[in-house]
Specification:
alpha+beta; 9 helices; 295 residues
């Protein structure tokens, strides 16, 4: 049974290393287990090269036959949490950088205090990935980027996006009075999860604009962007909650406020084909209780 569970993890991740990280065993131990399983079954289950792991036809058939039963066993074990004094288990999340700081950051201290026996494994990435294929129980993204075949629940209200610059920068280069005036400014360009460059969006009195903001620096990290803005490197376009503390201290100033649009809030999403793990349900409940960004 252990060898079959190891095979399922390798098949899910298509990687001995990632499967080993999920299971807490070494890649060499997984390789040894798989070789033993293949020898006992008398068929090859995986094709392995230095660069890839793929399923053979026999491997695909075995995955289709035992995947659902093993998932049912996992769900049944997780269901025993209702008989325990303290819930336990492990949940894996794949979240945007903004979601990690604005949603999980304020909530996780209370979560681990309330449920100390639930492990939480968080991967923070802005790349658009298949969270199920990556081995995660759920992902957190902006609402309009959630895959259509997933169940999604809102974790926040809409979020306002603003342009900010340091007082020194604005004193030197002036304050733009219209989004098109950004053509004469230094802007920090935003790389999206699909590696495209984001066009800054604005809205006022029913008029919408998408500006290809010019700039020598392209990035995908908010903390880095805030450091650069504070240092006078240029203007940045960010969620208002990310810049609020710096605005309050006068480190940066908001510009084009009358053009600042509201964007979709954060949603947590997960497969419709799997039972919701107890730990994930409790985390969703706590986020909605604490409402770090309102809802």
């Amino acid at each position: 049974m252990a060898d079959f569970s190891y095979f399922l993890a390798i098949a899910k991740h298509r990687s001995f290393r990632r499967a080993g990280l999920e299971l807490g065993v070494s890649a060499s131990a997984l390789s040894h287990s798989l070789k033993g399983l293949e020898a006992r079954l008398g068929v090859r289950l995986l094709n392995r090269t230095n660069r890839s792991v793929t399923l053979t036809a026999a491997g695909e058939e075995l995955l289709g036959g035992i995947g659902a039963p093993f998932e049912a066993i996992g769900s049944a074990v997780d269901g025993l949490n209702r008989y325990r004094a303290e819930p336990m288990g492990k949940i894996r999340l794949n979240v945007l950088e903004h979601a990690s700081s604005l949603i999980l950051g304020p909530v996780m201290p209370a979560f681990v205090e309330r449920y100390p026996d639930i492990e939480v494994d968080v991967t923070v990435t802005n790349h658009l990935v298949d969270v199920t294929a990556q081995g995660a129980d759920a992902g957190i993204r902006y609402g309009r980027t959630v895959p259509e075949d997933m169940i999604a629940q809102a974790l926040s209200g809409e979020i306002r996006w603003v342009v900010v610059g340091s007082p020194a920068y604005l004193s030197r280069f002036g304050t733009p009075d219209h989004p098109r005036a950004l053509a004469d400014h230094r802007c920090l360009r935003i790389r999206l999860g699909d590696d495209s460059v984001y066009r800054w969006e604005f809205e006022k009195d029913g008029e919408g604009l998408a500006i290809d903001a010019p700039g020598a620096i392209t990035l995908d990290d908010t903390h880095f962007a805030l450091n650069l803005v504070a240092g006078g490197a240029g203007l940045a376009y960010l969620p208002e909650p990310c810049v609020g503390p710096l605005v309050a201290r006068g480190v940066v100033c908001t510009v084009l406020s009358d053009w600042a649009p509201m964007g979709a809030g954060f949603h947590i999403y997960y497969s419709s084909r799997r039972q919701l793990p107890t730990g994930l349900r409790l985390l969703i409940d706590l986020i909605r209780e604490l409402r770090p960004l309102g809802l």
